[in-house]
Amino acid sequence: MQEREVVLTKREVEARLVPTGTEIMIPVDSFVTITQSLGGTFTVAVNGNLARIEGHNADALGKKPLESSFDTPADGTINENQVWEAIRNCYDPEIPVNVVDLGLIYECRIENDTAEGNHVFILMTLTAAGCGMGPVIADDVKVKIEHVPNVDKVTVELTFDPPWNNDMLTDEAKLELGML
C-alpha cells in the first residue's frame, strides 16, 4: 500500500460511497485523495466522504489497472492456488487487509468437469452484517476468480453464521492492524 496521494480526476468516474455502497459520480477535474490502493481497487476521500473506485476505472485517477496473469493448467482444471491468490487481491475498502487474512472466507470449493464446466463456490462473511459494501466485496471476489484460467462459473454466497469476530484474523492481519 502506498502513502496517501492527491490526484485530479482525468474523467468523470463511477464510485461507491463507503460504507453504504451508494453509487456516485465523481466529476472530471475533482481533487481526490487516494487513501488505499490495494488489489487493483482504490479507496478515495472526496468531498468529506470515502468512496471506492473499481480497478477498471484506474485511468480516471491517472493509474494503470492491475493486471493479473496466471499460467493456464494444461489439463483443463482449476488451480486452487491461483484461486486463493485471486481472492487475496480482494480488500475491504476501509481495511488494508485482504479478505482471506481478515478471515472472511469460510469455504472455497472447486468442482472440475461439472455439467456447467469448472465451478468455484465461495462461502464468505463480512465484518458487519449490515455492511453496505458487502455486495461490492462479494462481487470483487467473484470477478477476480473469474479471471483464473479454466473457471467457467463462480458462485459467491454470503453467510453470517458463524458471525465474524476478531479471532478470525490471521496473525499477519493482526500485525497489520496493530493488534499484536
From TrEMBL:
<dbReference type="Pfam" id="PF01883">
    <property type="entry name" value="FeS_assembly_P"/>
</dbReference>
<feature type="domain" description="MIP18 family-like">
    <location>
        <begin position="81"/>
        <end position="156"/>
    </location>
</feature>
<dbReference type="InterPro" id="IPR034904">
    <property type="entry name" value="FSCA_dom_sf"/>
</dbReference>
<dbReference type="InterPro" id="IPR052339">
    <property type="entry name" value="Fe-S_Maturation_MIP18"/>
</dbReference>
<dbReference type="InterPro" id="IPR002744">
    <property type="entry name" value="MIP18-like"/>
</dbReference>
<protein>
    <recommendedName>
        <fullName>MIP18 family-like domain-containing protein</fullName>
    </recommendedName>
</protein>
<dbReference type="InterPro" id="IPR017776">
    <property type="entry name" value="FeS_assembly_SufT_put"/>
</dbReference>
